[in-house]
Amino acid sequence: MAPRNHDTGPTGVTVDQLVDRIFPVIDDLLDRIDGDEFTTTDFIALMHAVPGAAKAYGEALVAWGEQERPSKMVIHGQVIPGALRRSNKVEWIGFAHGEVDEYAVPAWWKLIAPGS
After folding, report:
1. One digit per residue, pLDDT tens: the chain, 116 residues?
2. CA 50 distance to own-chain centroid
3. Domain range spanning residue 25?
4. 87 by DSSP, 3-state: which?
5. DSSP state of 65
6. CA–CA separation, 11 vs 43, rounded Å?
7. Is 61 in contact with 71 (CB distance < 8 Å)?
């Protein structure tokens, strides 16, 4: 088996390609969040609760192409945070120490008020 780039899944899809695919769903979900701060874990729970977002999450897992656990590690630790960082609606404010996510180190995010 030939070595592959660390940001490329076995199917040939890259983390950046998955961020591109899931970004519209994530950016839309940011408009549904109550409050002004949330964790990555909270956001993933919201994704699972919204049918279209849950479908996009599942499609990202399949597209990455590894077994469930390593795929979730990539989606939770790289793809979703990458899409959140791309949005102008939110900013990263630090790691969520003590927040449980068995697939990645969650972060705290702060919503940015429109026009800020």
Report:
1. 444 456 889 899 999 999 999 999 999 999 999 899 999 999 999 999 999 999 999 999 999 999 999 999 999 999 999 999 999 999 999 999 999 999 999 999 999 988 77
2. 14
3. 15-111
4. coil
5. -
6. 26
7. yes
Does residue 82 form part of some domain?
A: yes
The tally of domains found in the chain comes to 1
Distances (CA, A) of 45 to 13, 30, 107: 25, 13, 14
Q: Is the pTM of this model over 0.90?
A: yes
| 93's tokens | 């404010």
Using a CB cutoff of 8 Å and minimum separation of 24, what contacts does 54-62 make?
56/21, 56/22, 56/25, 57/22, 59/21, 60/18, 60/21, 60/22
| Separation CA 91–CA 1 (nearest Å) | 39
Give a yes or no: residue 9 inside a domain: no
Instruction: Please indicate, yes or no, if residue 4 is contained in any of the structural domains.
Output: no
| Whole-number Cα distances in Å, 33 to 5, 74, 85, 114 | 35, 23, 16, 14
Give domain status of residue 21, yes or no: yes
